[in-house]
Amino acid sequence: MAHFGFENDIHSILKLDMPITNAPMARWQRKASSSNTSATNGLSPGKSANVSLSSSKTPSKTPGKSKKTPSKMGGDRFIPIRNSKQMDVANFLLSKENEPVDANAAGPSESQKAWSVSLNGYNIEEAKILHLGGKPLNAPEGYQNNLKVLYSQGTTPASVKKTRYISSTPDRILDAPDLRNDFYLNLLDWSSRNFLAVALHNSVYLWDATQGDIHLLMKMEREEDYVCSLSWTKEGSYLAVGTSDCKVQLWDVENQKRLRSMPSHTARVGSLSWNDHVLSRYSLSLIQKGETKWSQMLLQNISNLLNSFPSLSGSRSGHIHHHDVRVADHHICTLAAHSQEVCGLKWSPDGRYLASGGNDNLVCLWPRVQEGGASDSQLIRCWSEHQGAVKALAWCPWQSNILASGGGTSDRHIRIWNVNSGSCISSLDTQSQISSLVFAPNYKELVSAHGYAHNNVAIWKYPSLTKVAELNGHEDRVLNLILSPDFSTVATVAGDETIRLWKSFEMDPVKKKAKERMIKSTSSVIHQSIR
User: Fold this and answer.
1) Apex CA 143: angle with CA 90 and CA 139, to 5°?
2) Over the stretch 189-214, which tens digit does the pLDDT of each residue have?
3) Confidence of residue 17 (pLDDT cuts 50, 70, 90)
4) pLDDT at 105 exceeding the cut of 60
5) Is-contact 452 477, C-beta < 8 A?
6) Confidence of residue 130 (pLDDT cuts 50, 70, 90)
7) pLDDT at residue number 530
8) Calpha distance 527→132 (Å, rounded)
9) CB atoms near residue 276 (< 10 Å)
10) β-pairing, 195-200 with 188-190?
11) The sheet that has 188-190: what strands, in order across it?
12) pTM of this prediction?
């Protein structure tokens, strides 16, 4: 009996492939039968051609519409109905395309010209794009070429993107053997007379950027002593040198002669700064008081007038000393707010404020030196937001109330301060130790020198602080950077004992000529007033 059960199972499976007799009609069968019925009704005589097929059609989704899509009766092509004029036009075009070319023919007939004008609006024979024989044809009267107008239009200045090329390689590399790799020292400065001063252990060398010559300015007597800081006066005739034996030396560069040595500190002098504005006010007061000796000296030698003024020095003890190099008792006063080494000193462009940074992570703001050498030692502001040593300080030359400061390895932040309100305008994490900052006025940018871990130079757009470029090449941390007198080149010195010059801020030639004309006119006015 088992084989009968197996046979029944086979039959039941096979039934699945057999057609279903009692199932409803398939959709394709309904469509075929309805199309056959409509075709038969349309062709049979005595019956109307408009037979309703609503019983076999899918109900319309928009019953409110009266228009229906015309059906394709008995075919898969839709042939539109054309009027007699369109047929004549088509016949003309076909006959024109297929007729043989007759060389002796005088030209198209008048009827063909009329058809061409009525179809195209102009005679097509006279407006061909390509003409294989004869002279080129002129455009019809009143014809305008829009493409020619677009091509002749110049680009508007707003659409031109102004960019400049910043070279990623230095313009020049100078060797700096025996350079002291100390983060807290300031071993590089560039004078207004285009002399670059660099301290190599216990010696100071001068590089003439105009001629390319190198001169040895001074060397300390003891081998264990070393130079800690350098600072040029504004007109570039004198150089202040801070040393490890707690002294500040003043050198006459033109005569290569040391004018004086000023001891007052109890530790090495790691930072120096000159205040040009104090000089002019103080010297003028001496002339008004009738000081004959000083008056004769200032009239005989104008350069001495511009060089003899108080200077500042910051030492490892945390003290800042005011010096008046014109008098025997040069030490005017002491500013005490830092508990550790003062490694950054900068006067504001207008001479109103002194900014100091130290290894105690503080940024301090001091008032200017008053006339007669006296100074109000009252601290104006003190910021403690940095978490590392603050050596990098820079005043904005076009905004005298803006100060930029940079922190060491534990901080890595550039902070922009408004000294009037005391608020921090912006802050940027550079992810690297900041050893030096300077503003580039030619393009209103901020340049930062970095140590661990990037060991490079970065250029930032001010005030957005978006990165413009990176200057890589040093193999050790960058210790200092300084701008050239024309603000076109930045010089960097690093622990790899090299000095690299980067031409990253060359001025636009048009702006450069305008600036030179302005400087010449200003200098002529000053020369006339002196005479």
Assistant:
1) 80
2) 999 999 999 999 999 999 999 999 99
3) low
4) no
5) yes
6) low
7) 36
8) 76
9) 15
10) antiparallel
11) 188-190, 195-200, 203-208, 214-219
12) 0.62
Q: Which two tokens stand for residue 271?
A: 């930072």
| Backbone dihedral angles phi then psi of residue 226, each to the nearest 5 degrees | -150, 160
SS3 of residue 284 by DSSP: helix
CB-count exposure of residue 361 (10 Å: 0-12, 13-18, 19+): buried
Q: Which amino acid is at 382?
A: C
Give the whole-angstrom CA distance, residue 441 versus residue 447.
11
What is the full DSSP assignment across 355-393?
EEEETTS-EEEEEPBPGGG-B-----EEE---SS-EEEE
Q: Which residue in this structure is represented by tokens 């390509």?
A: 130
* Structure confidence at residue 181 as a pLDDT band (50, 70, 90): very high
* 3-class secondary-structure state, position 118: helix
Q: Which of 435, 457, 431, 433 is nearest to 445 (CA)?
A: 457
Dihedral sign computed on CA atoms, order 372, 377, 380, 384: positive
Nearest one of 337, 346, 359 to 183, comparing CA atoms: 359
Nearest to 196 by CA among 182, 177, 183, 210: 210
Structure tokens at 148: 């020619």
Q: Measuring CA to CA, how many Å separate 92 from each of 86, 87, 88, 98, 208? A: 10, 9, 6, 10, 89
CA gap 114, 117 in Å, rounded = 5
To 5 degrees, how large is the angle CA 307–CA 312–CA 318?
A: 165
Q: In this structure, are residues 215 and 224 in contact, taking their beta carbons and an 8 Å threshold?
A: no
